[in-house]
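Colleagues,

Please find the record for the two-part complex below.
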Amino acid sequence: MTIEPKDSKVVLEAVQSAVKRYGASQDELIPILNDVNREIGYLPGEALDELSRLLKVPKSQLFSVASFYRMLSTKPRGKHVLQFCESAPCHVAGGREVWLAVKEALKIEENETTPDGKWTLVTTSCLGVCGVGPVMMIDDDVIGNVDPAQVPAILAKYH
Amino acid sequence: MKAIRSMVLVSSDTQSIANGANEVYQALQHEIASFGLENEISLTMVGDVGRHDASPLVIIYPEATIYGPVKIEDVHFLVEEHLYKGRVAASLQAPVRELSGKIAWLSARKGTLPAEQRIVLERAGVIDPDSIDDYIIHDGYQALARALTEFTPDQIFDTLEASGLRGRGGAGFPTGTKWRFVNRTKNAKKYVVCNADESEPGTFKDRLILEGDPHSIVEAMAIAAYSVGADEGYFYIRGEYVLAQERVRKAIEQAKEMGFLGKNIFGTDFKLELHVHAGAGAYICGEETALIESIEGRRGEPRPRPPYPTTNGLWGKPTLVNNVETMANVAPILRNGADWYRSFGPKFSPGTKVYTILGNVNVTGLIEVPMGITLREVIAIYGKGMKKGKTFKLAQTGGSSGSIVPAILQDTPMDFDSFNKAGVALGSGALLICDEDTCVVDLAKTLLNFFRKESCGKCNPCRIGNQRAFEILTNISEGTGTLNDLTDLMNLSDNLYQLSNCGLGQTAGAPIRDILNHYRAEVEAHIRLKVCPTGICPMSGKKI
């Protein structure tokens, strides 16, 4: 995952291999978008153009799906994506203080990316690991029982 | 056959794996081999065992000693002490608490704790979820075999109806009746769908069932498909549940190899193909028609109902959609009969219910108990009391679309009918226990923030209503609310309920109604006195 626009060859290859994996059908659209998003880090316009050509589905319709789901992004994201759970169980368990500590440490607001392109901060609904709230997710790592004081140390582990 | 003298279980829920369960498993394997014990000790990765405070856990049977959190550097000592020398490594034991899972069940036998009643989670945390053999040894696929060879579809519906099983996704619709509807719809092509898009805040029971006992749901899906006349089925698993997706995929593969899926199942004409469809992060896809839209590759926007999926579902075909927990009850009912199932819980809502206990209690985790237990019992027995000796103020049930249950209702039995009568909802089984330091305005604001963000935006009452309700609550929490706002909030809550297209919008106003019904004085204090009685709200005077 990186913030620079991807080489169009890489984008096209990612789309083509995902379509090959699942088949060129709209029923498989979400798995295909998931895979491309994972590989490129987001869904650039070029990827949707190519997908539109392969699936014979209008780009507007692809964009409406791509912009609907939380795990898909139509905008470039930072090298690491921090998803913060803001649902009630984490909130009651002290999530509010952790959220302030995260914003303080990264010096950005929700849905923003740090100027160096390292971090993107987003909120998420329940991740289903409420037994250890407050919970946040950095890339694919679930981090539970977060204490506001630990936040800088947790972030420092990611380069 | 090898004589196994000890059974070692390693917890492998998402949290345990994040804390290094895989590495601990490998270290255990290595150490057991280096002590030459590999022929007398079995080592298994199991699902969630319910102790999230000390994961990863290592449990050794027959002593039922619980170690945790176990680190790699502890493994050598643990194997040497417990398995080689045969004495408990006390320094590594998990803090002593009776908890959910087999742990609680064992202490219950000694008479110290009321037993949990496990039906749907009977095997989770006990068997190896990646092994079909383990499942078969524990009565697995027996119900499917009997269903295919001994029962007609109508007998299956009769049994399910007689058992009183009601959908566990939140709505509580009788399961047998729903199955019969799909069966009665004439169509050459039908589908069965398992709704595992579990996104209700505070709910993770379906994840534990799928991670700990995936074959039980595969079996139930096959029974469902046989009885309604479907030959294809989908698991819709939320995108974040990567481990659950892997386990179910593997279970389907194994079942195919054994001939429990595919063609000519158990020598009959019945054939079935199952697919796993991963979601991409949208709460609304738990609504059955939105889920169907999503499988078809579109935005997860609910369809108008009727027509219901039982007649016009996936690709317009009759489709049976059931929640994971509902499915998990099917095989045990067919194996043991309706009367057996009716012996648990109250008359009109029989069976068990899986609850997740969260919030300001001493022990959080997951329990499966008969329907009809009270909140007081849950807090005192399973939650081990309120944290720091504080007072219980309210419980928020069923994730965000549940109710705010005030302390005065803590002796009301938790089943569908008693809760309906008391004007609250059971929801999906999350119990967020809040103490006296919880501000109801802040809580309602958090819940409405959730609905505001998760609304799909298709219908206006939900898209605009939730946003406006959130803004008003924010103003109240900033100390700039007016008494007229309370009237507006009540109207919004009514409008959401009456005008929204789907269940999300219809239940979104419930927190507002509940706090104004039960905690009006506290809300008014924010407005009249400009004071948040619990000191949580900012009250900074900023108007948005």
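Confidence is low (pLDDT under 50) at residues 97-114 of chain B.

Comments are welcome before we finalize the supplementary table.
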